[in-house]
Amino acid sequence: MKEKKRKKRMHPFIKGFLGCIAVAAIAGICVSFVAASALHSKLSYEEIESVSKEPFKEEGVKNILLIGNDSRTEDESGRSDAMILVSISSRTNTIHMTSLLRDIYVDIPGHDGNRLNAAYAYGGPELLMETLEENFDIEVNRYMLVNFQAFANLVDAVGGVDLEVTNEEVQYINGYLVEYNQLQGNPEGTDYLDTSLSGTIHLNGPQALAYCRNRYIGTDFARTERQRKVLAAAIKSAPLALVTNGGELIDGVMSNITTNLTKSELNGLMLQAPAMLTYDMISGSIPLEGTYSNANIRGMAVLEVDFEANKEYIQTEIYGK
């Protein structure tokens, strides 16, 4: 008779160690779920029925459209002053921040052709996402709408940002702070920068917001680049700020955001956060250089775009095809 092979027993230490890992993993998931629930309760959640059943993740990429609108009060809808597509790819281990220039001339479903930022004014985030899909063949089903205050609060919550600022930009920062202070009821001159400054300057929230809104130095490409610089610097500091200043970060930012991200989707992002810290962050804008021309259509100064070239860029850079 053949001797039966004795089943190897796992050493008690290894068994206990693996058990601890399993418990820690489960605890981490529970903590993440609780945190996601707390964060989601601070947000303004608005379901968009037409995309609620559409997948958040497609081909290894999660797309979230960040929309900054130019309304001054809660009663105004405004146009989308800033549009940044954040693409988180577990396929290429990258986070792309792609600015979409507002003056791109596009076909807006159900409307005449117009600037891209008009889509938000006509039909909010739903029509804006539909317009992007129709013109650029990219699946975008989730969005986060942020107002001026959310952006300023984010920068303040992470302790401000250090940026290279020209003296000319300093003058415009002070200029934009005039309106911001009036809206906030702040005394005149609040947060003004020394007009002799230039070089690396530490900007607080209102100053960073004013820096991003500047549309008079350079083209709109330069303005969107300023927006991405501030956002990238804030994102880099956010993990530490969540630990050291979590209350301000959550209360000041989340309460000023409207989104159709569900609680479970937010939880998934939080679970993915440790891995995302290792991802390369890539910044860019659409249309690409050399793929557009300035035009005047029905009295509007617009950008006529080679959509095929920009679609190819999206598929190659974001989806890694």
Strand content: 15-25%
- Helix run count: 9
Structural class: alpha+beta
Return residue spans where pLDDT drops below 50 for at least 5 consecutive residues.
1-5, 11-34
By CATH, the topology of the domain at 48-141 and 277-318 is: Nucleotidyltransferase, domain 5
Question: Architecture of the domain at 48-141 and 277-318, according to CATH?
Answer: 2-Layer Sandwich
Order of helices and strands: HEEEEEEEHEHEHEHHHEHEEEH
Given this structure, which CATH class of the domain at 48-141 and 277-318 is correct?
Alpha Beta
| 3D shape | globular
Overall number of strands:
14
Nearest-integer average pLDDT: 85
Task: Estimate percent helicity.
Answer: 40-55%
End-to-end separation = 59 Å
Largest sheet: 8 strands, mixed
- What's the Cα radius of gyration? 23 Å
Describe this structure in words.
This protein has 321 residues and is an alpha+beta fold. It is 46% helix and 22% strand. Helix 1 crosses helix 8 (263-276) and helix 4 (167-184) packs across helix 5 (205-213). The termini are far apart.
